[in-house]
Amino acid sequence: MKNTTRTMQSGFTLIELIMVIVILGILSAFALPRFADLGGEARAASIQAAAGSIRSAANIAHAQALAANLASGASVDLEGQTVTMVNFYPTADAAGILEAAQISGSVAPATTGDYALIDTDAGNAAGDEIIIQARGASTAGNCQISYTAAATNATPQVVVDVSDC
User: Fold this and answer.
1) Domain presence at residue 57
2) Cα-flanking dihedrals φ and ψ of residue 159, to 5°?
3) Over residues 8-34, mean pLDDT
């Protein structure tokens, strides 16, 4: 008689291991968007970048107005675009800061452009305000930039809110 001994298998087979990895991959593909709000982070980054662009454009337009020795309300030519000014800084409208910063948008609820624009003060005087909101923000009134045109002997105010993007 031949004595045969069987060896006991321990662990998983290769097929079982592959199936577990596939199932975990499918579950993570559905669970990841619930835990990581990548769209909100992208909107917040976009708002921060636009705010930086607005600050830079306002300073460049201010420097151009001073270098050209223009009057306080005179328009400035930046890269072939005419930018309206008040107190040597861009006005808070489409022909002012939006033109200088090259930000595209449309007045809400229209959906063209990168941003929704809310012109809270009609006109282009000192103290006027325009609000630039990211499209797709989870809460209305958040995830936005507020630009207030410069008062006499002051700089424009740029306020950024990236909550609930």
Assistant:
1) yes
2) -115, 130
3) 83
